[in-house]
Write the structure tokens for this entry.
Amino acid sequence: MTTTAPAPVLDHDLARALDAVLKDLATDIEETARLVNDLDEAAWATPTPAPGWSVADQIAHLTFIFHLAGTAAADPEAFKAIAAGAAHDFDGSVNAALEQFNAFPPAVLLARFRALGETSVAALAAVPADQVVPWLVNPLPPTVLASAGIMELFGHGQDIADALGVRREPTERLRHLVRFAVLTRDFGYLSHGLTPPPEPFRFELTAPSGEIWAFGPEDAAQRITGPAHDFCLLVTRRRHRDDLALTATGAEADRWLGIAQAYRGPAGEGRRPGQFAHRH
């Protein structure tokens, strides 16, 4: 008599984590859309702190990112073809995507941003939480890829908010970005051609609610402490470290504050000390 092995049971904690991050991702997509929902056409051309990028460019870039994420989750082979084309000239591919999506009038671009954002959330929700989705460098679990989407929305949304003079209220949804930035601690080293240190850091960050979000060994010699919102501004390079209430303990942690980034590739120009002093 033969028996059939039982189907593996998905870890319910993984499934709950994926549900939570996708819910927050959908909320962040809509929050970003509301930033530009009532702008006239001239306002869409407002320059943002990212040199050479307008408000429309920021939304076009995010639209492209969600197009990529939705394709990766729903049609991995199609995504691999897109990624292969971008592998040799990623900056060129990004610029081509900006031109592609900026060809649409603002209302159409915003509709596409919302639609492709929703499509990517649905596609990631259909991937079992214990599997991986192909991505630009390495395959990622859907929870991590969704967190990367939240990172993109936070950074580019901050550029839009800064351009429009809007202050966004920090929320508990920042937890996903904080966790992602801790996971990608070494990206800043890699972008500067440096060897990441082998020892882990301790991160103790204060959430908007006042809760402490802690990651890493309690006895780590290298520590980063401060507000979680400031930490997110640092790792997306939307504020200079001098303008943030973050404290480093240990020489390596102090060096990291100057190079931190939660995304692969070139660091970019970042922001100047005091550039947004008038906003506080």
